[in-house]
Amino acid sequence: MTDGPDLPRHDGIDAVVAALEEDIIFGRLAPGARLTEDALMTRFGASRHFIRQALVEMERRGVVRRERNVGATVRSYSAEEVRQIYEVREMLTRQALLMLALPAPPALIARLRELQATYRDRAASRDLRGVHEANDAFHLALFEACGNPYLVRTLADYMGLTLPMRAKNLADDDGLLLSITQHEVMIDLLGGRDRWALAQLGIDHMQASKADYLARIAEREDGAVAAIGPRRSG
After folding, report:
1. At 8, is the secondary structure helix, strand, or coil?
2. What three-state secondary structure class fits 159?
3. H or E, element range at 34
4. Do residues 59 and 72 touch, judged by C-beta distance below 8 A?
5. pTM for this structure?
6. Exposed, middle or buried, 106 (CB in 10 Å: 0-12/13-18/19+)?
7. At what angle do helices 163-170 and 128-144 cross, to 10 degrees?
8. Average pLDDT, the chain
9. What tens digit of pLDDT does each residue of 127-166 get?
């Protein structure tokens, strides 16, 4: 097989990464699914070098794992890894929200209401990719108000790292309704002075996705045990 033509560098890598992330969000690529270079070259009409660069970027974001003699696979996590990742994300989230000046500036509240309206529209139209993007835009706008760009950058990295864990919850009607409702409460709290209530809601907000992913891990493990069957004694 010959290498395909290169796409414009940044646009090409972004397009490949966005398409593969969408596959993960919609469940078309399950945890552990293999991402073969030849198949991706055919799909995107890109060179092997370009596909490798895209996979490197996805590995940097934490959604792909690359291993020698195995290749690239959609990242899957153990229950302990999930707990550890969320421990860090929760600490970062709490710190960012405690740093906000309350009552928040009217411009920030207005901006968040605009983003929340977009979030509602995407949810109503069942635009799952749009739901994911609108949700992230809301949280990043909120975190940026803490005034520490390094903290915000780290939070953004961990939001990307938890993409495989939280994407399914945003596709679930009950999970999406809970997320929308909690966003509304966050906006209301920004008009008051209770930073601790806001910070705690920020922590509570991510628990449904965490619990859902841990439940899926348990189901996979139970299924694996059932497939092996009971051990014989003797």
Report:
1. coil
2. helix
3. strand 34-35
4. yes
5. 0.78
6. exposed
7. 120
8. 87
9. 888 888 899 999 999 999 999 999 999 999 999 888 777 7
